[in-house]
Amino acid sequence: EREHRIPVIIELGVLATALETSGVDAETLIGSRDGPPVLHLPDSSLECLHGQHRILAANRYLGSDSRWWVVDRYDKGNGLDSSERLQQYFHEGYPNSKSMSDGEILWRIRLYNRSGQRDLEQNMWCYVSLSKRKDLRQLLANGALRKAFDNLLHWPGLWPSMRLGTLHRLLTMRCDEEAVRYLQHIRNIWTRICMDRANVVVGADCKTVEMLQLRAPCASSADWKYINQEMDSKLLFPTITDINDRKVVRESIHQMRQIPSLFTFFADLKYLETYAKAFRSIIGSPQGTIHECMSHLYTSDGLTYSHLLVELQDGTFRECTRNAADGREFGYQQLWLYLMRHFPVMVAATPRKENGKTKPEIKEPDPRIWHGFATLARHLGFDSDAIAALHETDPDEKAAREFLCGSRPPRQYSIKPGELQNGICQISRILKSMSTRGQMPGQGPALVTSDCSGEVLSTRCGRPFQRSHEYDRDYMYIDLLYCAEPESKGITSLYSRREIFFAFLGRRVLQRAGTKRRPNDMLGTPESRRPAPAERSLSVGEIVECP
């Protein structure tokens, strides 16, 4: 087996002498894979490329008649370049030369591919199991995702935490745009931390990435204190020794919100995956990404060109100025936020279990919540057959029918013609008269806390925990997330949820102002839903990258 053989470099002249001395011809040597002949090199030595420790052990423990080894011979060639390439090949790519994580393997595959070192690239593929190879090839065939990952090759420390077994989730979610945006966010943050300086980039080793990921130094004084301590001890960026360089890096880190990495990316995909399941149920088409499909469903029906609807936490909407692209993207973001608030009663998923608490039970889908999702989608300018069907289904009428039929089963009670339907209509009207209780205005979101160190690192990514979700859902509204940057001792779960949302969906320019309207004001025909001119304008614009 190859891993038990020793690769060596040999000059052709030395090989010819060895064959003559040993009485072996070249044809016999080439055709002797299963029983290689013994070659004697009395006056020569060979350069060992890998496995020298085995030879040293053999010299120590084996008798003189047993001190032999099967070798793979490589021609030294005519110059140093060939020898150096072979040394690099076996130092970096020989099987079992060292234990490498999935992320390191992919990092090398892409690095060798981009530098044209096909032999090293192919050798790295040997490390990828057959079960993972299909997903990896599918990833690399996706130009946008491949480029987004390639843009992170400058930071080897980001890659060890990556697991190729998680690629299947990424490839089946149909959230390519969101994934690419998150990966671009990682690149932007680490470029800012390292100031695009080569010596600092090299210093961002695996340990540095592990210690910085999920920290929020600009908002959390506890996180900033920790980072200062680790910078002083030189555990962060240990290879950077210049005092001024370390000072500049420290100042750069201090400007960062929650610091992402490839570890947080794959953890947060689990968070996004839950909501993507619900989104896929309304787009109809089995082809294309969710964003592509929703863009095709955007009609801006009932809205003038100059207005945008922003849903508020008290159940009302604010009308603001916009252009078509802003209306589509802000509407798209608001639909994601709706799913984040209500996912436990929309899909077969739950928040994570709190320590010491019972595991949350999966609930039946709530038709009222699904109806609300379809209604919101239409208010925001999205429509499809699935959305229309959900919107036309009256959840109050269904609840009234279930109540009456359960309380007075038709098989047991004599019900006059039309009496059941009249009762259903009466109860349905009563239910409709009870408006949803929104969050009281003025109770702003708690993004930071003065209590201890705030949200622990392990809960700052991935699916939310139950207690956190129950609090955060009241504040997952676009105008509340686009608020001023607070500072305190620690950050809350809501702060982390907000950063994950912006990492996937992007942070756009938003100023809160406009005319307030209630949902009932927008019902009826498209003309009756068309909003009046805004009294105050809301400026919206392109996505901007923030720290």
UniProtKB/TrEMBL annotation:
- Which stretches does the entry tag as region Disordered? 515-541
Q: What is this protein called?
A: Uncharacterized protein
